[in-house]
Specification:
13 helices; 7% strand
Length: 283
C-alpha cells in the first residue's frame, strides 16, 4: 500500500518483526493467536512504531548515518510508544473500540469499554514476553539479561539453559513454563545471535515514557484529539523530535534535547502508577 510516496506491507510470521530496506520501503509482520485476538493488534502497533521510525528518517540522506536510527533502544522507544502509551490508552480505545465491536459483534456484544480496558491491563504472570502486561514486562527483560550474562561468562552451558530458564522464571513469576516453546525458545533473538538486545526494550520503555511527558506538555489536548481518531499529530511530533535526526544525537542526547533531562525510570514509574490507580478507580 502507498504511504507518503513509499511502500509498506503487513504479512504473517511466527514472531512479529519489522524490516526496512529504505525509508520508503518498510515491511512488518504479525502473528495471529486464535484465542487472543488482541495480541495481533498490539503486535501490529509495536511493529508499526518501528516502521514509522524508519520511514521518518531523511530519505535524501539514505546511505549515510544521518539516515539511520540513533540506536536499538531509541528504536524500541518508538515501538513501545505506539504499542503501550498510545495503543493501550483509554482515549485510543474510546475511538477504536466501537470499530472493533463492529468487527467482532458476537464476541464483544456484551463487553463495555471499561470492561475491555480493564481486561487488556490485567496484571498476571505470562509465559510469553510479548503477551505480558506492562507491569511485569521488564521482568521478562531482566530474566533474559541475567541469563545472557551467565552464558557469555561461561557460567551456564546451552545444554543447561532450559532448566536455568525455568528455575529463574519460577523465581520471578511463581510459575514454570509448560515447555520450551513457552520458555527459552519463545523469542527469535538468541537464534539470530542478538545477544544483548533485550535490555533495549526496557530502555525503550523508559525513554518512551519520558518523551511522552514532553509530548503531552506540547499537546495538552492530546487525549481529546486521540479520542477523535487523530494519530497524525502524534507521528508528526515524533518525526520532528526523533526521526529526522538520524544518528546526529545518541540515546542520551536525544532525551536531554527533547525532555531537558537525562533518561531515568521516573517517568515510566509515574506512568504505571497513574494508569493503574485510574484502573483501580474503575472497580
Amino acid at each position: 500500500m502507498p504511504v507518503e510516496a513509499g511502500y509498506t506491507r503487513l504479512d504473517a510470521s511466527s514472531h512479529p518483526f519489522s524490516i526496512a530496506l529504505h525509508p520508503k520501503d518498510s515491511r512488518i509482520t504479525t502473528r495471529y493467536l486464535p484465542n487472543a485476538f488482541i495480541s495481533n493488534i498490539f503486535s501490529v502497533l509495536h511493529e508499526a512504531g518501528h516502521s514509522m521510525y524508519e520511514m521518518g528518517l531523511p530519505s535524501e540522506l539514505w546511505g549515510t548515518p544521518l539516515c539511520q536510527a540513533a540506536s536499538l533502544s531509541v528504536h524500541e522507544s518508538q515501538s513501545r510508544w505506539w504499542e503501550t502509551l498510545v495503543g493501550r490508552s483509554k482515549p485510543f480505545w474510546k475511538h477504536f473500540y466501537p470499530e472493533l465491536k463492529k468487527k467482532l459483534p458476537t464476541l464483544l456484544k456484551n463487553i463495555s469499554l471499561d470492561q475491555f480496558y480493564r481486561a487488556i491491563h490485567k496484571v498476571s504472570p505470562s509465559f510469553i514476553r510479548v503477551e505480558s502486561d506492562e507491569v511485569s514486562y521488564c521482568l521478562h527483560v531482566i530474566l533474559r539479561f541475567e541469563i545472557e550474562k551467565e552464558l557469555i561468562a561461561g557460567k551456564l552451558s546451552v545444554t543447561d539453559l532450559p532448566d536455568a530458564w525455568n528455575e529463574k522464571f519460577k523465581s520471578f513469576f511463581g510459575v514454570v513454563p509448560p515447555d520450551n516453546t513457552h520458555g527459552c525458545l519463545q523469542d527469535i533473538h538468541w537464534s539470530l545471535g542478538d545477544f544483548g538486545y533485550f535490555p533495549t526494550y526496557a530502555l525503550g520503555n523508559l525513554l518512551a515514557a519520558q518523551l511522552f511527558e514532553a509530548f503531552a506538555k506540547k499537546h495538552p489536548d492530546w487525549s481529546l484529539r486521540l479520542e477523535q481518531g487523530n494519530l497524525t499529530f502524534i507521528r508528526e511530533w515524533l518525526k520532528e523530535h526523533i526521526h529526522r535526526w538520524g544518528r546526529i544525537y545518541n540515546f542520551d542526547e536525544l532525551a536531554k534535547r527533547t525532555t531537558g533531562k537525562p533518561v531515568s525510570e521516573a517517568a515510566y514509574c509515574h506512568y504505571l502508577k497513574k494508569k493503574y490507580a485510574d484502573l483501580y478507580n474503575l472497580y
